[in-house]
Every structure is written in C-alpha cells, then in structure tokens.
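re: that chain from earlier
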Amino acid sequence: MMRFAALLAVAVLGGCVPEAPRRDVSLIWNPTVTMAATSRFEAGRFSGDWVVREGFEDAWTFDRFTFDVPRGATTGTWVQSNPDAAARLRISQAGVFFLDYIGQRRMSEEVVVLWVDEGFRTAALAARNGRAAVIVDRSASGGADRIEAARVLLRKNGFDTSKLIAVGG
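^ sequence. v structure.
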C-alpha cells in the first residue's frame, strides 16, 4: 500500500511540472478581428530586400530579410538576417504565403501581407496566428507617411500598435 501511495504521488507531482511560458498573443493582437490580405500583392514586385522598421518585442527576431519569388511563380525563398533562418516560400493566395523553414527549425508559418504601398516600398506583415507583426521598408529610414499607413492597417487588423517598437536595420 505504501509503495502504491508513493507511485501515485510521483505521478501526480510529475504532472505538475510547469510548462515553458507561452506568449499571450492577445497582448498584441485581438483574435476576434479577422486578418485581411492586401489585394495589391504581386510576388514579383514584392521580391527583394526588406528592412524591419517596427515590430513587437519577442515576436520575430530578424531585422532584415530577402523575399525572392520570380514573376508568375508561386514558390521561392525567404532568407532572414539570421543565417540559420532560411525558408522555402509557398504562396497560397495573393498576399498569403507559408514559410517552410529549412534546417533545424523545421517549422512552417503562415504570413499575411496586410498592406503594401503602391510603389512596393513599405508593407505590413503578420503571422496568421497573431503572434507577430512587422512594418517593413526597402530603406532603413524615411517614408514616415508610409510607416504611419502601415500602422493604421495593423490597427484595422486587430494589432495594438501602441506596443510597436523601432527595430532599425
């Protein structure tokens, strides 16, 4: 009987090990708001180098990336400033793509292009699950009007832009 009680105690206590803390996406995104991809998206025009200008703390951990999809194609590559974070890119619909990370990360993430300006110089991107969002630009400075327009679109898509921080580049 004593051995049974000891085993039961071990089993119960074993289930009490705390999980690693998870980021509460509701701190930056309201999940009752549906994200809408921009209809302006064109992969060929979106291709090239981007600088992350603003983002949310502890969300995505890169400050630059290269989006490369040939005109008319639905697949390409995504390479972040972190050299271990290369991904195959699959476009599922205009303004929505999946990043299938290569190597040790072995994960997939759905990204929504919420807005891009007419000149494809500034854009707002978000993880479909709301855990991250960024404002990106072709340049590390300038374009204050476009950056503000990107903030407006993040707000319309449920993000708390008061928590955005400058990233730089």
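Strands lie at 48-56, 64-68, 75-80, 86-93, 96-101, 108-116, 122-127, 133-137, 164-166.
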